[in-house]
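During the first year of the project, the team set up a workflow for recording each protein of interest as an amino acid sequence followed immediately by a discrete structure-token representation. This format lets reviewers and collaborators read both layers of information side by side without switching files. As required by the reporting guidelines, we include two representative entries from the current panel. The first entry is reproduced here exactly as it appears in our internal archive.
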Amino acid sequence: MNRHQIYRVLGFFPVLFTLALFGWSQYVYLTSVVPLMYEQGIKRTIAWTVIELVVLGLALWSYAVCVARNPGNPVVRAATVFSHGGTTPYMRLATASRTVRQRSGSVSSSATDPASDSDSSSDNAVLTPDQLRQTQLIHTLTVRDNGQPRFCLKCNVAKPDRSHHCSTCNACVLKMDHHCPWLNNCVGFRTQKAFVLFLVYSALYCALLFEITLIYYVMYIMGMPAEFQFDLAPFFMMLLAFAFSISLLGFGGFHVYLLLINKTTIESYDGNTFRHALGKRTNLFNLGFQKNFRQV
């Protein structure tokens, strides 16, 4: 196994930990909180539980999409560069094409250096005529800092606008936002919507858990029945739910803001270099709030 395959395997531990947190919170809710709610009325208990389960289901579904779906890769197929989610055969074709060019000496040394990063080192590399021909097959607004077309020397493919090479996934990602270790995947063109929805649903789920547990747990403590025994699990879950809801609301709000102005996390820090004499902070991809929202 190479280091990228090892990273992918180890990356599933945060995913399992996230799923375990969801499972543990649901177990505590059903075994400790629901009995307290039941004493205050069965109809209210059913209503809150149904709402909580629906939100949990939406959060888990969006999380599964983020983890399992390919974020989208620019791939070489025949004489055309397609900007869509690549499948394994296409990536094999791109890899085979890169191998042939390596043997013929048309790929620079930085492309085969595992320690180099194509997004940073390619600015100092001169593209071969064959690589330049590949870049002419797609229309782009952005270029490298030196004015040359954007080309990934590791994947040996022309890079569409907003695509970047992920060193963890060892692949170029369309409209790359960032690599998320909690997903063991990149947030990109095909996973951005699911990622934003996951943040929103998870924040709502945590807020519901905190509110429900706080109300009914406090009511139960104030009643102080004779058989009362302090249960640490709901109290600990309430604290975790409060902390996660605050952090997810802030993180989710930031990504909703980026969505509405049509920016990625990378672009919010580094900007873009356009073909024309425009500042790096210029955002030619901003179509307005409504169109940006529909685009995702």
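The second entry, processed by the same pipeline in the following quarter, appears below.
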Amino acid sequence: MISALAWVRKGVAAERPSRHEMTEEEYARLQTEAASEINEAKRELKQTTDTELLNDPALKDFDLEHYDSENSSDEEAQDGPHIFSNIKGLSFYAEDEHDPLINGEDDAELEAEEAEEERVFATDNLLLVAKTEDDISSIDMCVFEPESDSLFVHHDFMLPAFPLQVTWLDYRVGRKAKMEGSGNYVAVATFEPRIEIWDLDTLDAAYPDLVLGTTDKKALRKAKGKPHKEFHTDAVMDMSWNTNVRNLLASSSADTTVKLWDLSSAV
């Protein structure tokens, strides 16, 4: 399901986007978040009865009530794949230096091909597509080619919740805040009570460059969706970037408030 669209201003995207490399801090953050989600899931599981689990529509196909009594004799009787059943087409080399998988020749060619595929031209028509498939939400930066009437995904970002609105902006934030010139970013509003701003010129980014709002779950639970003077407490429904005063972004929320954010300070 596509829930929001936005064009990227033509000619502003970096010709060769940089590839993000995870830092030790980001790896530690991932571990902390994973542990927190596991603990939250365990807490919710303790509050769920066995009957509720068995009647969960999402688990019906697994027939958990008869899981232990399943007959696996048919599966055991089936012949599995033989270890050498598909050796046609395999190449053998007498010397390691002749093997392209070892000497790195194929790697160099592959890297060159990938770099060319990742290239963005100033004449490209770039479209941001917010979509959700199988409960997984993402932002796709797509290239539209009018000559062939085709649209393909250049790269994407994973989102924490269903996206409601996207806004393109060129004000530099996060890692590139002190760099001169205009940037290439997208602000994303979701059912979460905060706004994520992603750098469109960075590939494989695990986290947004800037988050507007609080990530403190205790503070959000305490607010319970009621208006708060410092952050949104419910889904962000809409946004508007000020093209004249480029560090200002306005947002409206289901918590019945409208907020004006200063992108230079994230408040």
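For the second entry, the following points were noted during internal review. Residues 221 and 233 are 9 Å apart (CA to CA). The first helix runs from residue 24 to 46. Both points are flagged for discussion at the upcoming steering committee meeting.
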